[in-house]
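In keeping with the milestone schedule agreed at the kick-off meeting, the structural modelling team has produced records for the first pair of proteins. Each record is given below as a sequence line and a structure-token line. The laboratory manager (R.T.) confirmed that both were archived under the project's standard naming scheme.
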Amino acid sequence: MKLVSVYIPTKDRHDLLERAVLSVLNQTYKNIELIIVNDGGASVKTERLKPYFSLFKSCQIIELDQSVGAPAARNIAIENANGYFISGLDDDDYFLQDRISYFVEEWDNKYAFLSARTKIEGYDNFNFIKDAIIRKKRVFSYESFFDENVSGNQIFTLTKRLRENKFDVSLPALQDFELWFRLSKVHGEFLSLKKRTQVIDIGHGLSRITNLDRRDAALQKVIDKHQLGIDDFKCLRLYWKVEFGINLSLKDCLFLIEKLRFKLLFVSFFRKLMNTGSLG
């Protein structure tokens, strides 16, 4: 049974961190190393949290004196990981019990990495629609990122692969997107699994980075870094506009319909309807 490292960057969100840690502790796969990087916040070695740490096969608590930002904190965790495999978790999200065992069972060295679908907490109708659209595991290439982030915010891969690449801390956003894109360019296709094994919590009232200007600025840096053209990501940028409630021209709507055969546009508009109650 190979060791799997799970890293969690955190800062001053102890209640959410406790839930995340418990979700890792409760995995059916037990050979897990937990790595928490405290990004300059109050110590996580509280009386409430410390008992959990001792229950892991291996546990590292890295407390930074000053904040370096989540991407750099993740890189510190990756550098210190001892696992054969590695995966990440944000402190405001949590795993379902079989996530790690599912990844280990499905692993094949021919893939750059594995990803799995997520459940958005409190959006059961949206999750149902996605289930109706996505019925099986799928293989993607790096070019799939031109249309959408097909791998989500976390992946599962070999620790040595992630250590050789790591997050680009110079980007103002999209650090995970760019790293998954880069891994796929270097190591080939990746496998997206059908089953939902992670819950994304967008209802806790604390900040998640969703600024469109920052995304656009970061995307331009990605384009420059990888010597791509802005038109390569036309579909992705239109998807973002829909996500942020920006009306599209008829021409752009037709482009999305043709490009994605209704799927992405329908799901995005459905999500906006669930969030705002209207499409105007």
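The second protein of the pair:
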Amino acid sequence: GDMAQLSGGRLVLLGRRGSWVRVAGGAPVSVERVEAALLANPLFDQVWVHASPYHSQLVAIVVPSRDALMSWCMLQHIPAARTARAKDVLRVPAVVSHVRAQLAAAAAAARLAPAELIADFHLEAEPFRAASGLLTPAGTPRRGALAARYKAAVDGMLERLQAKQAP
């Protein structure tokens, strides 16, 4: 089902009930809302956000727009953009920094709450596809399949974030 609330005499659709997670610390987060906010940025073709009631921070798998990213790389004179495979370009520190900045810019433009900000991300060169089981035939994310496919990446990001928070 859908979730909605009355606000100022108007019915406001909040999203699908299954897309809401109460993260550690108690803040409710709609991963669909966060994904939609990030996808408003032309640098991103696909984004899958992982939220957990056991962690207070969100992590994401990001599939950049190949064309937008390569154009930016050319403007920045990043030589790997001309010769390297897309997967290799995603490891260039300047590219990672640019993606991080664009995630922050998209979050700011959408006025996401602190609990809705992406704390860490993994860049993926291969788009999510229905043929690989990561999308439904209608093109919507299969969250369980994405969680299984990217479990190692998500676990690694969450471990790094926990290590940063440890005293």
